[in-house]
Design brief:
Blueprint: H1 3-29, H2 33-48, H3 56-104
Helix pairs in contact: 1-2, 1-3
Length: about 110
Amino acid sequence: MTQERHAAQQTELVEQVLGLTQQIAFAASLYDWQKAAGLAQQRSPLLMSIQAEQTPATLHVIRRIQALDAALLESAQESRDELEAEYRTATSSSKAVRQYHQIAQL
């Protein structure tokens, strides 16, 4: 395989990874974490296929992917924190209702 063909295949692979990353970002923006996780699993083996040596243009695309990943991670962490807070509030409310019913039965 020629070096140019290998570079073209790597460019195509990186573009495919970018496309999947953008789909993951869209799913995350809709809080569709199951879809995002499925796309991430689909993307994972492709990421592992990216070679270390890349053209400058492909490296630029890889940096875009890394920036999207960083933003996705931050969004996922924020969503997790919000869900944890909602869970704590719901648990506390449930406990208060249970105590109210116990006292009302006395």
